[in-house]
Sequence to fold (134 residues):
Amino acid sequence: MTAVVCIDNRNGMMFNKRRQSRDSVLIDDLMGLCKGKVLHMCPYSASLFENYRENILTDESFPETAGENDICFFENKDPSPYAESIDKLIVYRWNRHYPSDLKLTLDMSGYKLQNRTEFKGSSHDKITREEYTK
Fold:
């Protein structure tokens, strides 16, 4: 599977059971990468994708139900327990320090950076997308 995460400069993902930030340009960018693939996520994340309904599946146990070629958006769940299944990783970096109580703990030493792209978001002057493969 391909895992997608959004993190701050300290690998923070969430704070007090809330997302750190939301950005419509980031969502558009991600959906461009998902063309023809199924995007899995928890129900909490579905509101971010209200303009996109096609090929999106929501389920609390989404990492277990995703297929090998599917994409999983990890917003309020650390993908580390699913590391064996992750062959590609897409990291969106907010390039800011936010408070966080959920952090990305995935050991990325087995992944190789394939591509790095920066773009201006709707709420951030700079968002960095990094694409890694095992």
